[in-house]
Amino acid sequence: MNNSQRYRIVAMGEKSPKMLSEITNDLFGFGCEIENISSLRLGHSFVVVLMVETPMSGHRIEKFLQPLIQKYALRLHVDLCTRKKYKFVKSDAFIRIRGKYTPGVKAFVIKKLTDAGLDIHGLESDIYEKDGQDLFISNIKGEAKETIEMLSSVSDTLRQNGLDMTIARDWKLLA
Q1: Which of 22, 58, 120, 165 has the highest CB neighbour count under 10 A?
Q2: Is residue 4 very low, low, confident or very high in pLDDT (cuts 50, 70, 90)?
């Protein structure tokens, strides 16, 4: 796109089945080329993060999206991106961690994995109850800066803290 700018758009609100579709369709109809999109559920909230390229200003994007903002009671943030386009890096380490939930377990797991050389690209975690006990599960993907074997060294430390770790080079191997 000539004379275009790149913007990061973050929309937050309660989950609604058509919200994501309507946001992307409206942005495309407004002349925005969607470069990247991520969406996630955080408790009862839903967050959509988009990188778009468009000749329009960020202010005009916000104004254009006002009907959707009101319809879905969204909080919207649009900001100009001045960095160069992101170069995609393929994840080569896929990790699933399960165990008893304790306060601070998520920060503990992240620190141990990053200290072992994992550049985290994606992380999903949840806490659930089973048989009266709070359990923790986390699916993590990233790039092993050293080797995948270096990440395996974290397994013993996690096991000592009541967590089981499965590591693979492909998500399919974790199923």
Answers
A1: 165
A2: confident
Domains (range + CATH), the chain: 5-81 (3.30.70.260), 93-174 (3.30.70.260)
Q: How many whole angstroms separate alpha carbon 148 and alpha carbon 7?
A: 35
Classify 72 in phi/psi space as left (phi over 0), alpha (psi -120 to 50) or beta: alpha
pLDDT of amino acid 89? 77
The 3-state secondary structure of 35-59 reads EEEEEEEECCEEEEEEEEEECCCHH
- pLDDT band for position 40 (cuts 50, 70, 90): confident
Secondary structure letter of residue 16 according to DSSP: -
> What count of residues does the chain have?
175
